[in-house]
Amino acid sequence: MKKIYSALFLVIAMAFGMKVKAQCTGCTTNITGLNTSNHIISSGQTMCISATGTVTGLITVSSGGILCNQGKIGSSNVLIAGGTFKNYGTIDTYSVTVSSAGTFTNYATALIDSLWITQANTTFINIGTQTGTAFAITENASATNNGTMTVFNQGDSLATFINNGNMTVTHDCAHSYTSTCINNGNMTINNDFFSTYRTTFTNNGYMNVVRDFVNSYGANFTTMCMINVGRDWWNTYSAGIYGPALASCGGFSVTGASYNTATLGSSTTHIDICDAGHPGTGIDGAGGTIASTTTYCTCTNSCALVAVGVNELENKNSVFIETIYPNPTSNTLNIKLNNTNSETLLIEVMDMMGKTISTRTYAAYIGENELQLDVNALSQGTYILSLTDSKQLQAKRLFSITK
């Protein structure tokens, strides 16, 4: 099965490779060969690196500036300070920092030792392949992975992270300080997973924690299927763990010890804990508040690998959601999308059970579009944003409401 998915990812990568050629337009500077100079790209300027171009000097993209790469960036540091960076080629660098409402979209290959996304309305979208050592999202920034990411450590604080693709963390993965995290794809943590300090984490896809799982200090974790935990499992310090509605089940298969001192389950959700040691109480340390709907080793709803990108490749829908912000929000949701046709889109907001809450239409034109959605009437929680094109094909994103 893994070989099949690997083959599919290669096909998808090739498809993106064909699409992204000749994407740099409006160039005020065009680099076609080796360039070792430092560059500051200011408002109104667009620096394009052609397929034959290579830049090795430091790069700063200020607000209103655009960096478009089809060749290679070998700079030691790239700073996107409010500007826009679109990578259709290769970037191999020690550090990339995106701040001040800047945007970095990777369509191809990014080898970045340290990637830091920080400050409100700053966004990172990975559609291609990104590999690195440290990946951090902070201070109300957001990051979305629609492709393949492999990093040594991942951490976020006061941020939003959504994984719709393949995510592998080869060491530790930590989410903290009211972050909002959603996994719709495939997520593997080869060491320890931490969700702490009022973070909300929702798992809708495949998830595997090779060593310890820790949910603590007011964090809320919800899983729609059974997650494997290779060593110990902890739910402590006023945290909460929940499953899907009672008609289904989700939870954890724990190889090591299991300890609960917080809230486990609720009257309306079904969580299952399967401790391989089969302690008499179901959990080694069965403290805290455990809902009567909690079961032990009865759930067969195992998390299955998600065939990431297959529908997009086969259906070729004409709308791509670049980003939504702020996320979470309380009043207005801003939507940036890219359309290949001029057409009327159906915009729907649905709850996590798929029930439609609101609908509207939007007349999209070819290229980049931006619209606002009034979500003030929605209650606190997580919702699905769905955009349907003229061929009845859909693009979806998850967003959260806070009150």
SSE map:
Elements: H1 2-19, E1 29-31, E2 34-35, E3 39-41, E4 46-49, E5 54-55, E6 59-62, E7 66-69, E8 72-73, E9 77-81, E10 84-87, E11 90-99, E12 103-106, E13 109-118, E14 123-126, E15 129-138, E16 142-145, E17 148-157, E18 160-163, E19 166-169, E20 173-176, E21 180-183, E22 186-189, E23 193-195, E24 200-203, E25 206-209, E26 213-215, E27 220-223, E28 226-229, E29 233-235, E30 240-242, E31 250-254, E32 258-260, E33 263-264, E34 271-275, E35 285-286, E36 289-290, H2 310-315, E37 319-325, E38 332-339, E39 343-350, E40 356-364, E41 367-374, E42 381-388, E43 394-401
Parallel strand pairs: 1-4, 2-5, 3-6, 4-7, 5-8, 6-9, 7-10, 8-11, 9-11, 10-12, 11-13, 12-14, 13-15, 14-16, 15-17, 16-18, 17-19, 17-20, 18-21, 19-22, 20-23, 21-24, 22-25, 23-26, 24-27, 25-28, 26-29, 27-30, 28-31, 29-32, 30-33, 31-34, 32-35, 33-36
Antiparallel strand pairs: 37-38, 38-41, 39-40, 39-42, 42-43
Provide a descriptive summary of the structure in words.
- It is globular, with a radius of gyration of 22 Å.
- Helices cover 6% and strands 52% of the residues.
- Among the domains are: 2-171, no CATH class; 317-401, Immunoglobulin-like, CATH 2.60.40.
- The protein is built from 2 helices and 43 strands.
- The strands form 4 sheets. It has a 22-stranded parallel beta sheet that branches. A 14-stranded parallel beta sheet has the order 1-4-7-10-12-14-16-18-21-24-27-30-33-36, with no helix packed on it. A 4-stranded antiparallel beta sheet has the order 40-39-42-43, with no helix packed on it.
- It has 403 residues and is mainly beta.
